[in-house]
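Re: export button greyed out
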Amino acid sequence: MTATLTAPPARGDERLARQSAFSRLAGRPEIGALVGAVVIFILFFVVAPPFREAPSIATVLYQSSLYGIPAVGVALLMIGGEFDLSAGVAVISSSLVASMTAYQLSVNVWVGVLVSLVVALAIGLLNGYLLVRTKLPSFLVTLATFFMLTGLNLALTKLISGGVATKDISDIDGFASAQAIFAQSFDVGGVSLRITLLWWIVFVAIATWVLLKTHLGNWIFAVGGADASARAVGVPVKKVKIGLFMTVSFLCWFTGMHILFSFNTVQSGQGPGNEFLYIIAAVVGGCLLTGGYGSAVGAAIGAFIFGMTEQGIVLAGWEADWFKFFLGAMLLGATLLNVYVRRRAETRK
Amino acid sequence: MSRRVRRSLALVTAACLAFAGAACSSQGGAQEEADTNSGGGTNSGAGPQLKMAMVTHAPAGDTFFDIIRKGADAAAAANNVEYTYSNDGDPTRQAVLIENAVNAKPDALLVSVPAPEAVKGAVQKAVAAGIPVVGFNAGRETFKDWGAMMYFGQDETIAGRAAGERLKGEGAGKVLCVIQAQGQSQLEARCNGVREGFGGQVENINVTGTDLTSVRSTLESKLRQDPAITHVMTLGAPFALTAAQAKQTAGSKATIVTFDTNAELVGKIESGEIAWAVDQQPYLQGYMSVTAAAFYLRNGNTLGGGQEVLTGPSFIDKSNIANVSKYAKAGTR
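Workaround output, generated via the alternate export path:
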């Protein structure tokens, strides 16, 4: 990616200068998205009375977490300069593998969960390996895996379970404990929250720590920003990229486990289209499409903007046929605001 | 791959296998599956094997069309027929699939046609080539126009109207009609039918059918936004199951009713979580299309007397669920 050379704005020598706390905050990639999120929140708070109630917010946060968990990985990958278009179907591949392994072999569901983790990581490894080996754009490599996984999901499910959906696994040993980890609900002050929300926070925290406080984090920015010079200074570019693809696979696997243990069965045709939502979350949250710039917190805010808009339109009771239009218009608005705020922040320095 | 990575991979695999052996589940899973093979029936197919082509508008991985195919498979086995199958939800791509199928010169063409404008030309190429065409599932209003000699299916508007009348009889207040693929005419027709038959307030909502968690969240939000909703009408079994979950989380009292069934849904009707389902008997649609085409080719018979043969609507509720349940588990209802 050659365009990346110009990407990181307002860096360089300026970093050595002392900055006020305010301008440091204003220079963060996620600040524009945060302002967008606040504006959309206030908008729905005003126009949609049900949006003001805690259970509705719980649903908004839950739905955001399902976009947000894979988006953490997708954001890291995008900072590292690559895309993964197979992420949406990989989620369903994971749940199909876990479900069919446990059911067909009549083994404890945890065996299925672990087998599917191995398969998921192998998919990430394959994506990464093909990328560094063929030097094709990740857009093409993962588009190919996207189609292959879509076909495999359907064909193998039909071949193995004789139908296009997997069988109910809720009476198999280990289901209860797996459900407690991946898909339980718990009460906080009378409001039912789903556990993915906590996991989302954990994943965002880990990713943020890695990006900002570790060598690995520097490497990720380096391979996305300028991969040739990163290699020249000794960054293990190939390993970092393969690792990033496997991180995406891991988070997709996690989301897949949540889907399996909250629905007990899996429909094999699910998933396509969601890969774009993860990318959207990362980009709305301030990640550059060209790599080298972005943050995990930003992707979380991006996912929140998307989840909030999607649910907010319903909670506001707006005409259903216009749903997608409103969704697109609000995303455009949030992104424009994002760009505006970031430009202001940059010129202020 | 470094040797260390390779060795640890081998270790992981070995550990998984060992664990798999030790962790056999004492219950559930395939071990409990009874032999559900329903048998092929007697072979009524005299003469050489017939080759047919089936082209549908089914989205990939659709549980409903899976039942249609099971019916078609059984009929093919019983009638000494071999058939090819292809599907695409996009009308223009479906038209291409039909042309491909016609080019292979099958003995008969079996099609579902939700968008006649786009597909008509392709189907008429089959008619021009002297290939008999049988329609099923979608396209009832127009099947004579595009050249089908027989049609097996339900009228979506009639089915919707029947469902609407039943809702009226049950004293429903406000009905939410859940459309899982925005802009599909047969889904809109169902909701319109419900609106006509019910006569009261029916509101449509569009959800993303390829993402069940999103469907669930959207329905949760909708049920919170509008507490006046007394009935949720979904247009496919997986969405009814999802709506039942959403209802629970949203603390709603709404009754869930649906079009179409699958094995899991039947269990929920037994337990009362879902009140009833409108059944169009997809197994029969697949079975009869293949069978009728075979009879036409071997014996010159036609069914329906130039009119459509309706396979629905019938209702599945607590009163007849016991009868349907065992067939649903075998995947034929």
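Residues 222 and 309 of chain A are 34 Å apart (CA to CA). The button fix ships in the next patch.
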